[in-house]
Amino acid sequence: MRALVVGLGIQGHKRRRVVGEECIGTVDPVHGDADFRTLEEVPLERFDAALVCTPDEPKFELLKYLLAHGKHVLVEKPLWFSNENQIDELAGLAATSGAVCYTAYNHRFEPHFVRMRDLITSGALGEIYRCRMFYGNGTARLVRESAWRDTGAGVLPDLGSHLLDTARFWFGDIADDFSIISADRFENRAPDHVVIASGNAGPRIELEMTLLSWRNHFTCDVFAEHGTAHIESLCKWGPSRFVHRHRILPSGRPPEEALTLVQDDPTWEAEYTHFKALCAGGGGSNLENDRWLYRSLGRLAAEIDGAA
Q: Which CATH superfamily does the domain covering 3-104 fall into?
């Protein structure tokens, strides 16, 4: 597949490395290493797909142009537009042209995330009572110094989109009943530490996200009828550990199965391989997950604004 990388920030450079020799060029209006300044400068016959790694503001027009010309698109999460009708428009363009529009949530390809999904869907844990996730990095100062990142709902759409998508990856079509527990602006203009939680629809889910974790970290705890399951760290920050504990009745120290991975981040290459398979298979696009996330994140962002 002949691929174009649009946007040469941190994500764009990662994507370009993964695409390798399949990359026919790069687009960026300001980056000196880019081959083109605008998407329209690139001859349409030169590429089959584009990996869009830009800030949120220009995404819609870029995706609209690409899908209208039948080009497959991998776009960095989230689809954060000015209104939901724009998602409908992109879905219509993809359906008409037969192009794939795929929003990248690379953590779905994290080995322990796949392991957690498989354990949950196997039924071995029984009824799932509660899931708690924490996702933090130490980018508060970098975000504050950015001309476009320290705005709006801050860390909520950035890391919260990953956490909400992960919850849907593991538990399926969960209810959109999350609410803000806390939203703080400790160092930044936009929220840099947010906690959200679901309501009465099971399982109960609590998600904490922050830009103030000076050592990048991820943890997850799932509490269930027949045992518990836990993840500590991601492969990119390794070692990454997965633990499944089997409940002893009426009580007692549970036997556990543990697996620790020490490896480079495999998610970028795995996701690109998945994207290429979608493009080759002609399976079309499904933006319903994006629609759910857009509504949920938009409602939560409005809740933060209302409390400000």
A: NAD(P)-binding Rossmann-like Domain (3.40.50.720)
